[in-house]
Structure formats: C-alpha cells, structure tokens
Amino acid sequence: MNHTGGWRVATLLMTLLGLCQLWWASGLGDRTSVSAMIFAPLSLLSALALSRANCLETRLPVVACAASQLLVTTLALTVGLPGQSRHPVDVPTASALLIVLGVLLAIDADRRARARSAGATSAPYAR
User: Fold this and answer.
1) Which residues neighbour 79 within 8 Å (Cβ) at sequence distance 6 or greater?
2) Measured between alpha carbons, how far is 65 from 87 in angstroms, rounded to an integer?
3) What are the two backbone dihedrals, phi and then psi, of residue 84, each rounded to the nearest 5 degrees?
C-alpha cells in the first residue's frame, strides 16, 4: 500500500504551506517574511518529491521542513527572532501553525497505516 490517506493529506497540506509561504515572502500582505523566503522553495520541493513517491527519503524532508517552520514560528511567537520583538498572533501565523501540525499528523497517520499494512514482521524502515 503506497498511497494512503495520510500521504495524500500531507502532500496537499505541504503544497498549501509552500504556496502560503510564497504569498508571505512576496510581501503582498502586511509584511514580508524572510523565513518564508527560505522555507517556500524547500516546502514546495519536498511536497513535489512526496507527491511522486511515498518513501522514507521523501517523507524525511517534509518532516524536516514542517518541524523547522514550527520551530521558527514558535520562537517568533514566544521570544522573537534575533533582532526582532515578539510576533503577535495573527491569521497568517495561526494558519501556518495549523497547517504544519496537520502535515505532521498526516505523516504520522501515513506511518501508522503503512505499519498496519506491512504487519509486525517487516523492518521498521521498509518501503
């Protein structure tokens, strides 16, 4: 079983996150996000890779991008990024957090579905 529901949701949410980051990086909103300029191409490339193949090598960059976005957003909300004050909670920030958490939950659901279909006898990193 290669294509699970979690895989499809993770691919869609990662693509949505990359497109939102492109929007935030462009400065069409109220401010330009430098971190979004960095994360947008990485998110879109990892979503493209995940859409092509559902394996460890494509899930790893998705998790790394999502976890990095979660870390940067959490730091910006709690103590502020270097040289900046704390970022207020607004719609783009809340949506980024929800999308990132959705990606991580979808990857976990995919992992569980793959483990169920593989059975208890297979290796944990089996494709």
Assistant:
1) 86
2) 20
3) -130, 155
The single-letter code of the amino acid at 53 is A
State pTM to two decimals. 0.84
Long-range contact list for 53-60, CB < 8 A, 24+ apart?
54/2, 54/3, 54/4, 54/7, 54/110, 55/127, 56/125, 56/127, 59/10, 59/107, 59/110, 59/111
The model's confidence at residue 1, banded by pLDDT at 50, 70 and 90, is very low
Chain mean position to CA 113: 19
Cβ pair 107, 63 in contact under 8 A: yes
Torsion sign (Cα): 94, 95, 98, 101: negative
pLDDT digits (tens, 9 = 90+) for 48-67: 999 998 888 999 999 999 99
